[in-house]
Design a protein that fits this description.
Helices cover about 30% and strands about 15% of the residues. It contains five helices and seven strands, in the order H-E-E-E-H-E-H-E-H-E-E-H. The strands form two sheets. Strands 5-4-3-6-7 form a five-stranded mixed sheet, covered by helices on one side. Strands 1-2 form a two-stranded antiparallel ribbon.
Length: about 180
């Protein structure tokens, strides 16, 4: 019993506390098709690749490349975060259908969050910040690479494929 408490204490101490996180990632968000939430502060000091996604878009097959990025770079520190959105009327109406596209059809293992707005006044808090730093996504599968220190945000449009030299070079630079 004592070992369990010690182990839990060690594990808890490896995650930044929300009070230690004073940037836009200090937000609790619900995971896709789950009651569980994640405070993005746990990814403090790691670069983030944040993507607005949709299940019924011409770019939906980019999930394959995003998953490959996740698998290639997660051990080096990159965190890929997916945000399904119906802002462009190409997302499923039911979260279970969105989850099926992500998890079953494309085998996504990176964090996907509950469907939310990514544009305008209703945008979720992450995209409110990103939109202020760059601009709102003009379509699905815009990619935002956020530096580990949260001081730089680089925006890539839908046509930038996840495995493109442009994006992978930026990721590798962010990981240095």
């Amino acid at each position: 019993m004592f070992r369990t408490f010690v182990l839990c204490g060690i594990l808890a101490s490896t995650q930044p506390l929300a009070s230690e996180c004073d940037d836009f990632t200090n937000v609790e968000l619900r995971k896709l098709r789950s009651e569980d939430t994640i405070n993005l502060c746990q990814f403090k000091n790691k670069p983030l690749l944040i993507v607005n996604t949709a299940s019924n878009c011409g770019f939906t097959d980019q999930f394959t490349g995003l998953e490959e990025l996740h698998k290639t770079y997660q051990d080096k520190g990159l965190v890929v975060l997916g945000f399904p959105s119906d802002d462009f009327f190409q997302e499923e109406n039911d979260e279970k259908d969105t989850a099926k596209v992500c998890f079953i059809n494309y085998g996504v293992t990176f964090n996907m969050f509950a469907t939310s707005a990514v544009r305008g006044d209703d945008a979720n808090p992450i995209f409110q910040y990103l939109n202020e730093q760059t601009s709102s996504p003009n379509w699905n599968f815009y990619k935002y690479l956020v530096s580990a220190d949260r001081k730089q945000v680089t925006r890539f449009n839908s046509r930038t494929k996840p495995l493109s030299k442009e994006l992978t070079s930026a990721i590798e630079k962010a990981l240095q």
